[in-house]
Amino acid sequence: MNINATMLGQLISFVLFVGVCMKYVWPLLTEALRERQQIITQGLENAAAAEKQLESANDAADIALEEAKKQAAELIGQARSRANQIVEEAKDQASDEATRIVQGAQSDIDQEINRAREELRARVSDLAVEGAEKILESSVDRNVHQGMLNNLAAQL
Amino acid sequence: MAGDTLTSQEYIQHHLTNLAYGKHPDGTWGFAKSAQEIGEMGFWAIHVDTMFWSILLGFVFLGLFIVAARSATTGVPGTLQNLCEMAVEFVEENITQVFGSRPNAIIGPLSLTILVWVFLMNLMDLVPVDFIPQAAHLAGVPYFKVVSTTDPNATLGMAIGVFILVLYYNFKIKGPVKFAKGLVTHPVPKWFMYPFNFVLEIVDLIAKPLSHGLRLFGNLYAGEMIFILIALLPFYAQWLLSLPWAIFHILIICLQAFVFMILTIVYLTQAHETDEH
After folding, report:
1. B77 vs A contacts (CB less than 8 Å)
2. The complex's ipTM?
3. What pTM was computed for the model?
C-alpha cells in the first residue's frame, strides 16, 4: 500500500474517460432519451385525442343510424301506401277494361245482328216473291208489288 | 489455498502486493520483487496491475456505452441500449435530486463514468481471488492484483480529480474572494476567530477528497481481505463462507460505486451553493 505515481496515472485516465464519456456517450444517450420521451408524450396525447374522436364518431354514427332507421320506416310506410294505391288503380283499370271489352263485344253482336237483319231484309222480297210464285204457280211481277215487298222488308 | 512453499502470512502478503514498475535504489529500472522494494522505489513507481485493470475496464465501459450511444434509437431500444439508458437515467435522477437542474455539462458524464467504471473495477472482486494471480504467476508475473479499487492510488486518484473540479467550481461560481471569505468566516463569524475557522475549514476541505477516496478503498480492501482469508481454508470448505460473502459483496460492490458517485454529486453541489448556510 504505497502512494505513488499510480495515483497520477489514475487521475489522467479518469480525466480521459470522463472526457470521452462527455463527448461520445452522454449527449447521444440523453438526447435519445429526451426524444423518446417526447415521442411517447406525443403518442399518449394522440391516443387520448383519438379516443375522444372515436367517442364523438360513435355518437355521430348512433345519430345517423337512428335517422336512417326513421327514414327507412317512413319509406316503407310510403311504399306500402303507394302499393295499395297501385293495386286499387289496377283494379279500377281492370274493371274499366272489362266493361269496355264487354261493351265492344255487345256492339259487335249488335252490328252482326243488324247486318244479318239487313241481309235478310235485302233477301226477303226475293223469298217472298219465290214463295208467292210457288203458291200462285205463276210469276209475280216484282215491279207491281214493289210497294208491298218494301213494306214486308221494313217489318223485319 | 496456501501453496506448499508459502505460509499463510506470505500468501496474504502476496495477494495484497501490487505489481510495481519503478526505479530501484541502485538506479536500475524494473519490477519490484517484494512489497519492501515497492516502498524503496518511492513516489515515482507505478502499479502496472492497477493501471492495466482500470484502463481495461475503462475501455469496457466506454466501448459498451459508445456502441449503445452510436446505435441509439428513439424507437424501441435494444438490450444494450436499454441497459445503458437505465444507467444514464439513474444517474440523471440522482443528479436532479441532489444537484438540481442547474445547467452543467460535466456532472452527468462525470457521474456516469464514476458509477460504471467503479462498479466494473469493484466487480473484479467477485472473480475468485486465486484465478488471475495464479495464471499471472504461471506466466512469470510475480504479483497481480485484480481489483483496482483495493489500491488507494486508484481511489485517491479519482477523488483528487473530483476535488480539482470542486476547487474549480468554488472559484468559478463563488469567486476567489467569496471562497476565501467562506474559509475564514465559518463556522464562527467573529473576526478574532478567523484563524481558528480557517484551520477547521481547511481540514474540512482536505478531508473530503481523502475520505472520498479512502472510503471506497477501505470497503473494497476489507472485502478482498476476507476473500483472501476464506481462501486459506481447505478447498472443500471454502464455498461455505465464500458463497455467502460473495452474495453479500454484490451489495457492497454496487453500493460503493453508488456512494462514490453520490458523494461526487454532493461535493459539486456544495461547490455551487453560494448562499450562506
Report:
1. 32, 36
2. 0.87
3. 0.74
